[in-house]
Design a protein that fits this description.
The protein is an all-alpha fold. It contains 19 helices and no strands. α10 runs antiparallel to α11. It is globular.
């Protein structure tokens, strides 16, 4: 079930809110758990068992770890629990990738199995691992109530596409939280903004990008190639940040406070800064549970660079079982290492240099998104060549005007403007000012009506991160 669907907005969410409002406070978690299971089963009923199995595995693993006082025994239990989680993820997400590459390298005949990846498996697996590792580190107590653990792993606002909520960030909220008028109001407004990002901007940019990336690179000119790259860059940002906004808003409605997942990443002046602003929940997860355990930057400069290389390899591979994702991760990792060595991201410079830094960062990010979007690295390579006028062709079939109309141009301008923190505090304006309150509420209602109309009229409405 999509957040940006009539079924969710006008049926599932109102019924869930009504049930949550009518039951006693001690039953709130059960209402959300039932709603979350129904939400997941709506789209993937046959894979509900995999998510439930993940819950039981981590519930049992954490309980055994909590009972043991032997350090070696605890470490063994943690290792086994992690391996079981990653084995399930490996089978559904990576088995065919490895089988295909082994067949290519060694001329073997491993069968390629028809596997459909359970939606959201990368997200809820990482959340489950967060819980077990937090228990092992004794940062949180063992959750004895399996229903509360199940709620943490499958809570519907962030189940399908994040943000990845770490257990120690919400453990107390699962046990006790409050939901008042202020939180509900904020949550509704945040949801509307996320919905508008997704439906009005991401979908429009996505239709442009898909049209361009579906063509052979010989069919379009340099300007069209750059349009496709930037259109996809905005599609990905508004799609994922829109989903995160909706998830954070829904969490607020039910009394949860989820950490921010995006902080205007396209204003970054270095790749290091970009990763402090982009998909924050994933980058902090890898920092806390992979980079620091590997030694972080505490051992030596060489070890730091190796650790960064491993982390960004894992970041790319987490996104999908394809070489283009791996190269995308390593592309960012190499520039992170370059900035560490040069001290680029620490330098205090004048406005002209900052502008150049921003251009450099934008260039690296957009080239990276071409790798990310392409079906394979050969297409990405040829596409990037085309961006710089290096593609040999006899005739250009279509120019840029074929791919973007007036609505697309207006949306593109809105995407550029809204990617900057010009309206960052709009939900926090002093509402004692009656005129400001009325204007903002009218604006939000207009966004909601436009978004609902677009949902009703459109057939193009995917969420990119569902496939990760």
């Amino acid at each position: 079930m999509l957040f940006s669907s009539m079924t969710f907005i006008y049926l599932f969410l109102p019924l869930t809110c009504l049930a949550y409002l009518l039951v006693r406070k001690d039953l709130h978690n059960y209402v959300l758990l039932i709603a979350s299971i129904l939400f997941y089963a709506w789209g993937e009923p046959r894979y509900l068992a995999i998510m439930l199995l993940t819950i039981f595995i981590n519930y049992a693993g954490a309980n055994y770890i909590g009972r043991s006082h032997n350090k070696k025994h605890r470490k063994l239990l943690l290792t086994l629990t992690i391996l079981v989680n990653l084995s399930i993820l490996f089978y559904f997400k990576y088995f065919n990738f490895f089988a295909d590459n082994i067949n290519s390298l060694f001329s073997t005949q491993f069968d390629i199995i028809k596997i459909i990846m359970p939606i959201g498996i990368s997200f809820y697996t990482f959340q489950a691992l967060s819980y077990v590792i937090d228990v092992y580190r004794e940062e949180v107590p063992v959750q004895k109530d399996i229903y509360k653990l199940a709620l943490y792993i499958c809570l519907f606002p962030q189940l399908i596409a994040g943000p990845i909520v770490k257990y120690h960030d919400v453990a107390e909220q699962i046990n006790q939280r409050t939901s008042d008028f202020g939180k509900v109001t904020y949550g509704v407004k945040r949801f509307i903004i996320g919905l508008a990002k997704k439906v009005l901007i991401a979908n429009t940019m996505g239709s442009i990008a898909d049209k361009i990336f579906s063509e052979p690179v010989e069919n379009f000119d340099v300007l069209t190639a750059w349009l496709g790259a930037f259109a996809y860059s905005f599609q990905l940002f508004y799609d994922f940040s829109g989903y995160s906004d909706m998830a954070i808003g829904l969490g607020a409605i039910f009394g949860f406070k989820f950490l921010e997942n995006f902080n205007y990443p396209y204003i970054s002046k270095s790749i290091t800064e970009f990763w402090r602003r982009w998909h924050i929940s994933l980058s902090t997860w890898f920092k806390e549970y992979l980079y620091i355990p590997l030694g972080g930057n505490r051992i030596s400069s060489l070890r730091t660079y190796i650790n960064l290389f491993i982390v960004f390899f894992a970041t790319g591979f987490w996104h999908g079982a394809s070489w283009n994702f791996i190269f995308w991760g390593l592309w960012h990792g190499l520039f992170i290492i370059f900035e560490k060595i040069s001290g680029w991201y620490k330098k205090e410079v004048n406005i002209k240099i900052r502008f150049c830094q921003h251009i450099y960062t934008t260039f690296v990010v957009v080239i990276g998104w071409v790798m990310f979007r392409s079906d394979n690295m050969l297409y990405a390579y040829n596409y990037i060549k085309n961006m710089f006028g290096l593609t040999k062709r006899h005739v250009i079939i279509d120019d840029v005007t074929y791919y973007i109309d007036n609505i697309g141009i207006v949306t593109f301008i809105c995407a550029v403007v809204c990617s900057m923190p010009l309206f960052k505090r709009i939900l926090y304006i002093n509402y004692e000012n009656k005129i400001s309150r009325i204007l903002i509420n009218i604006w939000l209602m207009g966004l909601f009506i436009l978004s609902s109309s677009a949902i009703a009229a459109a057939t193009y409405n995917p969420f990119i991160y569902f496939r990760f």
